[in-house]
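Hi support team,

I submitted a single chain yesterday and got back a structure, but I'm not sure I'm reading the token output correctly. Could someone confirm the output below corresponds to the sequence I sent? I've pasted both exactly as they appear in my results page.

Thanks,
R.
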Amino acid sequence: MMETKRRYVIPGDIITTGPFRPEQNVYQEGDRIISTSVGISEIFDNAVRVIPLTGIYMPKTNDLIIGKVIGHSSLSWEFDINSCFVGFLPAQDVFGRDYSPTKDELKERLDKGDLVAARVANFDRSRDPLLTVQDRDLGKIESGELIEISPSKVPRLIGKRGSMIQTIEMATKAMITIGQNGWIVVSSEDPDGLLKAIEAIRMVDDQAHMPNLTERVKSMLGIELGDNNDTINE
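Hi R., thanks for writing in. Yes, this is the structure output for that exact sequence:
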């Protein structure tokens, strides 16, 4: 296995030349691999990619997201999902099969400004994504602070097998709901824990491209450092 090489790049930068396989956020021109994003380039196992530092959320089917109600029709709610697309949640998904537009009032269940944890039920780029709240732990979020990070940093916040987010939750006694669209809701009965959790999340967002991030977060949270090293791929 080749050693991973990383550096900061912007669109148009030539990352490397040679027989490499182009992956995310790069394209090949002759034998040159060129960046299409602002981010950190990686050369690993004969492949090249760029981890973007910024970017908008592009919905994917089955993604868990957090949305904000921005309006409704007689048949569905419309959601801001931190994307160029608008999410739609059918009224029947909330009220059930007996939903009647003439009898049931959508505002009684979800009103403008409400936050909802939902899953992308269907999306194919030809139309706005269809949402659902029919899975476990989905639906209206009753309380908490909304934090926004770059959607590309969400895997870093979660960590390998959930290690990063579990570390933050255990150290702060906070409950953290992560949307893959970059919206995070943090709640805690302890004001200090709430502030610490928010600080840790923002630290991950700001420093996601840096090595040893887990150790940095643990140090900020006052956790004794272990022997395991964090890597940019976490």
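A quick pointer for reading it: Residues 64-140 form a domain with the OB fold (Dihydrolipoamide Acetyltransferase, E2P) fold (CATH 2.40.50.140). Let us know if anything else looks off.

Best,
Support desk
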